[in-house]
Every structure is written in C-alpha cells, then in structure tokens.
C-alpha cells in the first residue's frame, strides 16, 4: 500500500508544540514520506546556516530504526544525563488497519456495493490518518532535538541529518531487544534499591516534589490515554454503524411508493452526512486528546528517566563520600577517593542544575501544549456539533414540510 | 336481478335513495338468509322493532319492504329523525358475547354471513371502484351516523363511528377518519409494573389505564391490573376471531423466558429493570395499536380486558404448555400447506402487495439490525466516556499547575455530562427507532398471515368446487345405473355442495375485500407512524447536539484560562 505525505507546516497534526526558541539556525522537517510493504521511508529535510554543514539545504531518507538509533545514542551519552531526552517516536504500525482492509476484501456478500465502497473509503482514510500521525511523531522528535541548545549540537545528530548514505543501522535483533528489556528491569530494580537505601536523603525539596508528582502523573496520564483511545474507538464504531443504516434506508426509500419514499431517502442522506461528521469528531478527539496524552505520557517517562539518572548520581556521590571516609580512616588511596568523590559531586550537581531547568521546561511545555490542544478540541467539538445541528434541523424542516 | 339494476341506477342519484334501495335488498336477504344464519337473535331483533316512518315519507319505497325488516332499515331511517336508534342494538350484544368466547367454525359462518348481506350488495355495484368514494363524500348531512353490521356487537357508538367492512352509507366524516386512521378518542397507558408473588410463580402486574370519551365504556377513566399472559390471552382471542377473515390483528409482544426468569428470581439489577421497562412500553404500544383498529375496538373481549377487574386466567399461553407445543406444530403444518397451495391469482393487486410486503420485511430487518448495532455502540461510547471522565479527573488532581488542574477537572465534568447524554440518546435510539422497527416487522408478519388466510379460503372454495363436480358425476352415474334412492341422495349432496361453493365464493370475496381495506388502513397508519417517529427521533438527536454545544461552550473559557 503506497502512501505519500507532503508534510507542510499547515497540515501537520501537531499535538505538541515545539518552541523554536526564536532561533531559525537549524530547521528540520519531514518533507515527504513513503509507505512501502513493511516500512516507511521519511525524507528529512534540513535548512541551516550553521557553518558545520556543507550546504544550507539538504535532505536524506531515513527509516524508523535510524530514529531509534539516534535516540539511543543520546540516552547512552553521559553528557546528556542531566537532560530530558525527547521520547523516541513509536514504530509505524499499520497492522490493524491492513488487517481490516484485508478482511473487507475477503468479502461479506451481504453488503451492497455502495456499502463496500464506503467501508473501503473509511479504512483508507484510517490508514492515511495513521500514516500522517507517524510522520508527525517522527518530525516532532527531530524538531525538539533541533530546538534544544545542547542536544542540537550532537555529532550523531549531524550525521543523521546529513549523511547521504544509509546509516546501516539494523533493527534490534531478538537478543538486543531482550537485552534492552532486561536493562529496563535492572533499572527499575536499581531505582527501587536506591530509594530504599538508608542514608540517601533527598536534600532538595524541589526534586522530592517532582519525584512524587511524576510518578503519580505518569500512571494517571497513561490511564487517561488508554481510555481516551477507547472513547475514540467507540466514536469510530458509531460512525461506521451509519453505513448499513444509510444503505437500508436508501433501499427502503427506493421501494416505497407512498410519502415515506422521500422521508426514507432524506434520512439515508442525513445519516451519510452524520457519519462523516461523527468520523471527524473521532479523529479530532484522537489528535487533540489521545495523541497529546500519549505524547506527554512518553515525555513524563523521559522526565522520570532523568530523575533516575540524577538519583543514581546522588547514590554514586553518597557512595563516593563513604569510600572517601573509609579511605581517610585507613589512610589509603585517599587521593583517588578524593578525586572520585569530587567527580561524583560535580556530576551530581551538574545533573541537578540541568535537571531542574529541564523539569521546569517540561512543565511549561506541558501546560502550553495542553492549553493549545484543549482549546482546539473544544473549538472543533463545537464546530462539529453546530454542523450536526444545522444538518438535522434542515432535514427536520424538509420532513415536516411534506404532506 | 331486477332489484340490483334499480340499485345501480339509484346509486348515481342522491345518497339517501341508494341507502333505501339497500334496505330493500337487505330485507330480502334477511329473509332468505335467516335459516342459514342460525341466528334467532337477528330475527328476534327484526320482529321486535316497529319500522318508524321515514323522514320524508316516500311510502312507495316502504311498501316494498318485506316483513323480515332488519335492524338497518329502522336505524337508518330513524337517524334522519333522531339518534335514538342505537339503543335497541344493545340486544344483540348479549348474543354476540356468548358467541365470541370459544368460537367454533359454525359461528364463523354467522359473522361472515351478516357482513355478507351488505358485501354482496355492494359488490354488485362495484363498490371498490374509486368512483365510489367521491359519491359518498358528497353525502349531504354529516349527522347521518351509519350503523353498520358490526355495531350489532357494540351499542351506542358515538358520532365518531367506526367504518366496518361494509362501506354502505358512510358519511364523509367517516371516510376522512378512515384516511386518518386514529381519531378515536381513546388513550391507553400501561404503567406501574409491580412484582406479585415469589420465586418461579411470581409475575409482573401492570396497570392498564384507559382514558376515553367513547360511550361504549361505562366510565371515562378507569384502570385495571393485568399480567403479561392476560395480554397474550387477549391477542389469542382477537386473532382467532378476526385473522382468518382478513383483519390485521396487531401481534402481542414476545415472550422471553430468560428475561422473565431473571425478574422472577429477584435480580434487582439494571438489566431486569430494563427488561421490565422494555416490556411495559411494548405492552402499551400493543394496546394502543389494538384500540386504534376500528373493528377490534368493538370487540367485547377487548372491552372486558380494559374494563373488568377480574379476568379469567389465560392458561394456554404458557411457554412450554401442551397447547403451546400444539400451536407450534400447527404453525409448522400451516407453513407446509402454504407451500403446496398454488393459487390462480386473478387479482394482480394481491400479488403486488404480497411482493411489496416481502420486500419491506427484508429491508426493515436489515435496518433493525443496524439500529441495534448503533444502540449497542452508543452504550459502549457512554461507558467509555464515563471511564475517561474519571481518569481525567484523576489526572487533574495530580497536575500541579493550578490553572491546568482546574481545566482538567472541568474537562472531566464535561465528559461526565456527555456520558449521560450518550446514555439518553441510546435510550431514544432504542425506544423510538429500534422498537418501532421491530413492531413493524411483527406487524408485517401478521399481514402476511392474513394473505395466507385468503389463500386457504380460496383453497376451500376450490375444494368445494371439485367436490361439487364429483357429486355431479356421481349423480350422472346413478342416473345411468337407475338407482332412484341413490339419485335422490346424490341430488341432496349436490344441493349441499352447491351451497358450499357459493359460500366459499362469498367468503373468498369477503376476505379479499376486507384485506384490501385493511391494507389501505395499515399502510396509511404505517406512513403516519414512521413519519412521526422519524421526526421525534431527529428531534432527540438535535437535542443531544445542542446540549453538547452548551457543554463545550462552557468549557472553552476554562481552557483559555490556562496561563
């Protein structure tokens, strides 16, 4: 199934706002995307006047795995330990959509040709919507990196943007996936261990508060996201129900010989239009609500990861302190212990400072994003409700006006 | 027949005259048919009445009236003077009520016969032709309230009288009413379901309230308690009386063993309350439809159902009873018979209509299935919205930015209200749209049944003709063999079967006529029903959207207030 996306800034379903920080020295966007059998190819276009790059405007073609590689590179880089690494875009998943299209193709002989055409249209629209979303998510990832003063200067980032050839980054094989999975487990075990460690006291109220806040927030936003998804699905189901209803009313209308003929036909038309409106309600809720919640679920996870790293640094610092004390008592390798401790201390303080800034940015980003999306959601809901009312009223007038 | 010719010529003239011509015919008929009718009642009636003088006294016409004057002469004539005629009609009420319970085939003939008097008369002047209507509608005085044969059973009809199978002497008003279909001043409500008894013998009792200004009821407002099997019993009685002569008797709501068991067992959950409500609404619609049927409204069983405080328990309606199984078997036998009857359809109208109803049935079923899916998904949407509202509220609580926190709480409230809205809309989807469709699917089954009865009626006539032929052959054989006693017997049998053939033909024509009228009435009602419900349903959708607008408009400033 082929799909192309000419992504201009207007038609992007941007559920997150990326502050350009007024600096247009590095602009990244996904100007095109092609969906092939089982992968999506994104055309990443960069416009920059930075001296580092060979040209001012250039593009490369990247696949999802290469985005993941970039993300992991950031995460593993010690230098960025004190920063919130923008969450990686989710893998493009057309499975569900493809399956539905296939099932439709296999054919249910009881549906008419018009119904079949409409359902096919619906599924194709769904496919297109998923496609657009995946493009948007990949784009937002890159744009956040480009906007961040520190992250944008990363060497790997430049390579990603500029290197014309394939980065030869293969997808993770099973061993690596398993490894990643285990690493996560270790991390959370470690975290649990650190926090329960006696003597490890959070000195900073700010971080104490942030920790409790983020833990709860992350769980709840994940919940809200799942449920918003279900609401959106129900809306879609409802919209799809109008297809057979409209078809049956159409047949009834054509068969009737009395006054009900026009009534049924008008009703069939009405339900067809309501279907489209209902579908739009579903997709708007998806974009403005579900997607936003999903993004901040991931972002809050990234923030949690940052806190973990800081906590780890604190634990290391504590350990270094203990080691220094021990060394001093034994009067052995004091120098190394001292330098180690100082390293840990500096690291910890560096992390704390940047983490504080990052977390405050996270909050303001979150607030402004929610604001924008909630306003847009309300406005769209109003728009659709008003359109539905108008449609219904017109039909009522037409029906009542008949003898 | 000379009389008929006169009838025809008189017909073009003024209505009154033609009415009188009919009297003559009827009276003659009354005499001839009396022995066949086995109705002492009718003869008694006729004998007890003095024919009051006609208003404008045309003695010549009257002289031609024969002795066995029937009710109608007198009543029609008195109508020109004063509407006192209906009183005596109460006499036959008792006769008929004894007839109505436990009807046997013989009495079927009786009923048909009464109606047949007029049927034949009107047939021969091609009553069914469209020209008929305008002639009648130019009827001068709307005060003429015709008393039709079936009013024998119903005394004291109000001026808004019901038209019966006989179109004779209908006023314009009545024809308009026929077109409108439900100007009868009677409203039925079914309410207050309450559980009576315990365990598996428990049942729900419903209050049936009637509000009416019709004088055939003793009070203008009254109520009784009835249980579901009573309704089934009523339908069973009405069906046995009227279905086979071509009346579309509205079907009763369906039994549901599962649903009722839950209620009996005492589960006080929402699904049993929903079930009871669904049933209550269905019973109400069933009664409303039944009383709006002009002929059925006259039926004493219906009146007894609505009025009397005690009703004999209808036992044969039990789900797994012997009678129930017998009925199932009979239905199956009927279905087989239907397939084997090959009828020579002389009237294209019937074939056309049958096809139309078949198509309608199919499409309504499809629509009904899709509306049921809609109801289901809307309920799901409501549940999911409620769940989302809760998690949005939780999120709002966690959120440490005050303005955003407040906005999220507001969002949660909006979503909760929307969930309520969806629930109400699902309710409307179901009770307005879905139930209307399922009612009509079952009504159409009744219509199909009536067409089937016509086929059976034809078959009976056919069979009589075949038998007559055989009897004639037998007679011829006997004549050749010269067996005088057998010849006599054959002649007797021939006479008997000739009468049966005639009866068969009459029955067939009667049922055909009744069906035509019933279908006309049914279609008019259907159009009205659907239009009304569609409009109501769309209005409910408008309501929902308007509420949505209100809620989101209230939310918008909250979202904008996030700083």
TrEMBL record, chain B:
SMART domains: PX
Keyword DNA-binding among UniProt keywords: no
Disordered, as annotated region: 14-109, 123-148
Basic residues bias (residue ranges): 20-29
Chief localization: other
Pfam families given in the database record: PX (PF00787), Sorting_nexin (PF03700), Vps5 (PF09325)
Low complexity: bias regions: 71-94, 137-148
Signal peptide bounds: none
Keywords associated with the record: Acetylation, Cell projection, Coiled coil, Endosome, Lipid-binding, Membrane, Phosphoprotein, Protein transport, Transport
Coiled coil: 480-514
InterPro entries (alphabetical): AH/BAR_dom_sf, PX_dom, PX_dom_sf, SNX2_PX, Sorting_nexin_N, Vps5_C
Residue ranges annotated for the PX domain, each copy included: 184-313
Transport found in the keyword field: yes
Localisation per UniProt entry: Cell projection, Lamellipodium; Early endosome membrane
Bilayer topology: Peripheral membrane protein
Function: Involved in several stages of intracellular trafficking. Interacts with membranes containing phosphatidylinositol 3-phosphate (PtdIns(3P)) or phosphatidylinositol 3,5-bisphosphate (PtdIns(3,5)P2). Acts in part as component of the retromer membrane-deforming SNX-BAR subcomplex. The SNX-BAR retromer mediates retrograde transport of cargo proteins from endosomes to the trans-Golgi network (TGN) and is involved in endosome-to-plasma membrane transport for cargo protein recycling.
Similarity remark: Belongs to the sorting nexin family.
The protein's name: Sorting nexin-2
GN (gene name): SNX2
